[in-house]
Amino acid sequence: MGTDTTLAAAALAIALVALCTTIGQLLQQYFATADGYRRCQKSVMGEYARKTRLQWRWREFRFETLYTTPEIFLVGQGVPNRVGQVLLTGSQKSREKSLVPLSSVENGDAVMLTPTNLHGMKRQRNMESQLQGMQPRPSRIKGGTYTGEMACWVPLLHWIHEKTGVSLDDRPSITLQWTDPMLMPPLNLRLPGIIFRERSWDFQPPDVVRPLAKTTLSDIAVIARRMGMKWKDFRPSDGILRAEGHSQTITSTMVRSLGLVLQYSYTGQNQRLAMAEHNLRKRLVTGSIFTEQEEVYIPSAEADRLGCGVLRTDRKLGLPDVTVSTQAEIITALGYLDRSGTSAAALTKILRENPEYRFRVADIVALTTQPARLPSSHLVQVPAPSDNMEGVTRSSVGRRAFRQCLEEYIVVHKDDVGHYTQQALDICHEIGTKYAAWDHTDDSALKTSNGSLHEIRNTLMLSKKGLILLPKF
Predict the structure, then answer these.
(1) Which secondary structure element, helix H or strand E, spans residue 158, and what is its range?
(2) What are the angstrom distances between the C-alpha of 151 and each of 155, 193, 209, 211, 244?
(3) How far is 465 from 364, CA to CA, in rounded Å?
(4) Does the residue 18 lie in any domain?
(5) Average pLDDT over residues 250-278
(6) Deepest in the core among 67, 170, 171, 392, taking most CB within 10 A?
C-alpha cells in the first residue's frame, strides 16, 4: 500500500510538472504573438517603456503591442497649444513629466588621459562631473538601464532639455512660472514641447526595428539649429537631410511605405574635449585644442527665422520678408532694398566673375530687422542666417564711412529724404558722441586706415541705395 501511494504521488507530481510545462509553452506561444513587444522595453525606450502594454484581440486570438512615443514640436508665439502638451524646459519636473530623467542617457564614455589610466568607470564619471560643475550622477547600470541600443529620440529629448534649460537660465522671473511644465509658454517665447501618442506595432514597417517618434520638417529644422547643429545638406524633396555640430549629427533615410526617417546621434565629443583641455592645463599631454563656440540662442520665433535665413523686415519700411541663405536669394533681397537694380546687378557681376564669393549680410540684417533681444534677458546670441555674417558696419572704420556717406546723401537729396533716414543719421551722431570708439579712431589709427576708409566709402557709394536708402514717409 505504501509503495502504491508513493508511485501515485510521483505520477501526480510528474503530471503537474507536465501540465505546468504545457501551460507555460502555451502562454509563451500566445505572448509570442505580441509582435514588437521586446523592442519596446526599457533598454530601447527608457522610461517610455512604462507605457508599453499588451491588448488581447479575441477575434484574432493574439496580443497586440501598444507603445507610446512623443510627438515633438515647437509651441508659442502664434503656434497654438495642444491638449496634454509637456514643455521641455530642462527643469526636474519637466523631465519627469516628459519621461526623460537625467539618468535616462549615458553621458560620456571617454577615458581620462592620465598616467594611471585604469581607475575604473566610477572615478571617470566623477571627474567628468567635476569638469562640468555638476554633482556625480548615479550609475545607470544599477538601475538596469542599458542605453547603447536606445531609440535615437531618447538622447535627442535629453539634449533638447539641456539646451532649452541653458537658454532660460538668465530669466528666473519667467522660469518661476513653469512650476507646472504643461502650462502655456510666455507670449514672447517659442519653446519645444511634446505630446504622447500611443501607437500599435501592427502598423510598424518591417524595415524599422525601433519605435519612432514624430515631428515636422520645419520643427526639426529649427530644433537642430537651436542645438548648435548646422544643416550641411537640406533637400527634403530628394530625401536628403544632414546636420552636424557640437558632437551631434542628424542623417536621413527613405523608408518604403513610411517616408523620410531621421537618425540622431551624439558622439560625446564635447566631454572628450573638456577632458583633453583639463589634461593640457595639467600638462599631462601636449598639442592644441580647437573647440566649438558655445551656441545658446534666444528661444524666440525671430531668432529661429534668422537661423533659417528669413528676415522679417520692420513693418515701417514697407518691405516684404526676404531670405538671405543663398546668393540668389540675396540678389532678390537687394532688388527690394534698391529698386533701381544697381546693387543686384553689381552683385550678379561679382558672382559671375567669382562664383565662390559670399556677400556680407550683416548690414542688411541690422538695417531691416528689429532687435531680437528679449526684455530682462542677457541672452543676445542668434543663429547666423548666412555663411558670411561680416559687414561694413561691424568695424569702427566701416561705421565712420557709413555715417559720412549718409551725411553726403542727405545733403544732396535733402528734399527726397524721409524721416527715418534722418533719424538713422541722428542715431549715428548720438551714439558717436557718447561712445567715441563707435565710429571714431585715434590719429595713429586713422593714418593707417585711410586706405580702408576710402575703399569702404567707394563700396558704399556703389551700393548705397541698397544699404543706406530708406523709403520716404
Answers:
(1) helix 153-167
(2) 8, 18, 9, 7, 19
(3) 12
(4) no
(5) 78
(6) 67
Cell readout for 240 is: 536628403
Q: Same domain for 386 and 397? A: no
Global pTM?
0.75
- Interval 405-412 mean pLDDT: 86
| Residue 460: partners with Cβ closer than 8 Å, 6 or more residues away | 392, 401, 402, 405, 467, 468
User: Distance of alpha carbon 415 from its chain centroid, rounded?
Assistant: 48
Q: 304 and 196 in contact (C-beta within 8 Å)?
A: no
Coil vs helix vs strand at 63: strand
Q: Taking a C-beta distance cutoff of 8 angstroms, is the pair 442, 400 a contact?
A: no
Distance, CA of 391 to CA of 311 (rounded, Å): 16
Q: Based on the domain organization, do 268 and 354 belong to the same domain?
A: no
Who contacts 411 (Cβ-Cβ below 8 Å, separation ≥6)? none
What is the Cα–Cα distance from 285 to 281, expressed in whole angstroms?
Answer: 9
Q: Which secondary structure element, helix H or strand E, spans residue 264, and what is its range? A: strand 259-266
Report CA torsion sign: 352, 353, 357, 358. Answer: negative
433, three cell numbers: 558722441
φ, ψ of residue 215 in degrees (nearest 5):
-155, 180
Query: For residue 93, what is its C-alpha cell?
Result: 519636473
Cell numbers linked to 131: 569638469
**Total domains present in the chain:** 3
* CA separation for the pair 91, 96 (Å, rounded): 9
Confirm whether 450 is domain-assigned.
Answer: yes
In which domain, by residue range, is 310 found? 297-390
3-class secondary-structure state, position 97: helix
